[in-house]
Amino acid sequence: MANALYKGDLAEISFGKETGLRCDGATWTLTSSTTSTSTITIGSGAYWHTGSSTVVEIPDNILVGCVVKITGGTNFSADDYATTRRTYYITSNDTGAGTIVVQPALATSASQAAGASDSLVIESFRCPTFDSGMTDTTNGQRVRTDQFFGLVNEFAVPEPQIDVRKQHVIGMGRDVNVITSGRETLEGGSLEVNAHSMRWLKYALGGHTAKSNGSLATLAAGAHTVSEKPFNVADDGSVTGKAELQSNSSTTAAYTAIASSGTVFTGLDSVSTTTGTNVLIGANVASVENTTTARLTAKAVFKVTSGTAAGVLKVNDSGTTKYASYTGISSEDVEGVADIDSGAATLALAAGKCIVLLPPIAGAISIGDTRVNVGATVRAMFSVGDYIQIIDKSTHQIPGQDGTPPTIFKHEIRRVIAVEGTHVHVEEPFLFAHATTDCGVDRLRYTADASKGSPNINATTKELQNGVTHTLFGHNTVPSFTVEQSLRNSDATPGGEQLLRLYSGCKVGDATVSADTEGELKIQCGYQAARHYTDTGNMFSPHRMFDNTASTSANRKVSGIAVDGEKPYLFQDISIEVFGRPVLRATSFSLSMTNTNTARYFIRGYEGQTADTDQVQHGATQTPLDITEGVREYTFTFKALVEDDRLWEELRTRRHHQNTNDITFTMTKTGSAATRQTATITLEDYTIMKADHQIPSDKGPIEADLELVVRHMKVTENNPYFIL
Is the pTM of the predicted complex or chain greater than 0.90? Predict the structure, then answer.
């Protein structure tokens, strides 16, 4: 019967980011040890614990193969990674018991509880983002693989292949006498999408910054109550300040007090009587003391004191938020105001203007961190599913352009997956380090429309509202991700008949961006994985993208497929500039990049027992422990009808373009509004290696076939997504 078969029309694919897990302080215990393994119990104080029982919010054996490192500041000094370099890998984890088993055994004696300065960290590679809504029931286990692949034309998972070793023994005939299973490779993963966004170039290039307009308060029906308390606003009912409409660059009304609830403001009636109007609430600039200093009418509107360390502020410019830095606060003066966004300092130093000081981070962020210390007060304002934006005044140098390497600001946005204590935990490691005096924190949220600063695409005009600016560039590493594939034989809720597979530790090895006169901009990616995981026991609940995952307007933005944002970039809407001039008669182009990734296998040993029901076989010892990046190369080819001799002259003279005549591809989606989703690919350092000018046999136009070697590329996109 047809319904007895797994069919492609009932297949689902999605992907998610990978983040580490940790236990800090007295939230874990070394329960027992053997000569080769140790069992660790996760306590209810851990953020990935339900708190109601022993259940942890991560599926059975999903952590097999992940690497564990310990900071032993109290009771686990014998296992402290910084001093001993001891590392461990996980051979099993039990959801219901709340335990993980690691190998080799810890040096610390068993039955030892962690102390205040003891931490256990599970590294991000091969560790899918946990889902706080997971349960340990039938079809209750899951991970946060809720991201939309794109408009997929073709897709293949990296099917495992076993290295079977055949031994012929002397004296036992000509047949194979012994067969053993060796290492397992997970290669051949591939996808091709019609690009509705540039998200897959992030996973091919590795470098990524993002900046949003930021969050705003929204007026409620009474026109004096805002939807939620803005960041860093005092709550004692004794201060004055200014409120400013998002859509208006001028200060429009004053308030005189803040009620104890934190959301009721007197004086706001004159701002607007329309429910849902966006406002900034902050301190009024009374005067400009000098070219870099603003004096506030009521500094107390913010929770700041004289001598406050440097930070970041934001100001409204006709509906657009701009960010500036400052060096400190003395009395009522905000000192050392300087641009982050062009023109921000000028706006912030205008008398009568409303400026908002962002809360600082309470502790520095290191590269690879998966949490942010924002202090208890600010942490309480975050919820799971929010997004945290780090606005950083410091810059990062992009590789390329030997003479004048370009720099970008180190802004980052991450989705919040847990809050606890003074920390916000995020679903993807931070790419950059962030100092406490260089940064400000903004809270972002999706809404169904453009309220509260949420990015949105207008249903009528297709205008991109509150667009998020993303910059992609070559980095020394590329991020890993987890692929979820589920196959079922009916359209009913997946149950025991499903075939579900997770591939974790995936990295893009090569990618190609191409377009021709056929229509859509296409992105092809090849990737490999480090481990595969299978549902056993009918415990796992897969994502069904438009049934239960991206089933609302806001959740479609979360998954990366905003309503009215699903259409791809089209060939006819792409403009190309080559060698400093527009190319009007280009017929196709292809930009390829490779990361030369290599799967790494290491001697680990395995003392556990393997059963047929194991989600991951043999403790993952036969799969790669790491995938490392090698040489990165770019190749660019395009075809164009010949109009003059410049293409031949570029080849003949062997010009090396550094800092001059960038090659750019500018793509804009169709629509009636001037502000639409756009993307630009820039090749900043290149030289031509081939430029064929053959005479066609059909006597038609001469077409040049060019190939260029590129040292560096950069991608910018303005789209409706906080993350990629």
Answer: yes
